[in-house]
Amino acid sequence: MKQQKALTLKTLTKSNVWEVEENDIFRMWETAEKESDFKDNRNHYMDVIRSAFEIEEIKIDKPEVIKKYEARDFKVGNIHFDDNDNKKWGIKKRAINRITDLTYENIHHISAAKLIEVLDRNFGGGWDSLSQSIQDIIESGFDISTTTLPKDRLHKPGGMYDKKVNDGYEVLEITKGLWVEAIFAKAKPKVENHHKHDDDNASMNNGFGDNYDEDLEDENPSENSYDDDDDDDFDEDKLTEESYRTTFETEEDLNLEAEDVADDDY
Hints:
By secondary structure, the chain is α+β, with helices and mostly antiparallel strands. Helices cover 36% and strands 15% of the residues.
C-alpha cells in the first residue's frame, strides 16, 4: 500500500501504527537514526510503537535465546536506542483477541470477520451485556444492528437475516434457549482525519482552532447518527423482528408465546 510505504517514525501515530508490521518498524527506525532530531524524539517514537507492539530487549545475544523469542512470534532485529548500544530487540504486533483489546486506535484496522471472531470468543450475554464504552468503540468503526427471534424464524427467507448478509454484513448468532440473538457487523468507510482520539495527531491546534464549529456539530449525534436507518423504519420484516426483541427479550420459557403469535404479525 502506498500509505504504508510513505509512513516514517515521524508520521507514525497510535492509529496508523496498526497498519505496519514488525519489519517495517525495524526499517523505519534504521532510517530515523540518521536524522538530526532522532535523539530528541526517540522516546516518543518508542511510546507510539509500544501502543501496537510488544517490545522486549534481548540482553543475551545467543542463537538459542533468539530462537525462543522467534518461537513466540517475535521478529528480532537491531534497534539502537542509546549511543554505543547495539543490542537486539524482539518486536511482536499486539494480538486483538478479547473485547478489552479493542481501542479507538485499532478498531478501524480490523475486519468485520475479525470483530465477529473477537465477540464470539468473549460473548455469553449478547450485545447489551457489553459495556457502553466497548459498544462506543465498536460502533466508531462498524455499523452494528441486532435482532432476537425464535430459532425457526431467524432464517426466514427474505427476512432481516438474509437482507443483512446479502448487504455484506458479518453475523454472530448467540443461542438463548429457543431464541437466537443475531448481531450484524459491517465496517464503516474510513474517513481521513475524522478520528478524534489520536493524541499524536500533529495537526491538532491548541485552543479551539478553525474547526470549532465543525467539532460542535460532530458532538451532536441527534441530527446525523441515525439518518441512514430512517428508511428502514417502515420495513415490515424489521418492525416484526424488532417487536420480538423489545417484547419478549430472552426468556427461554417464552417459546410457547411465540407459537401463539398470529401469522399477521409476520
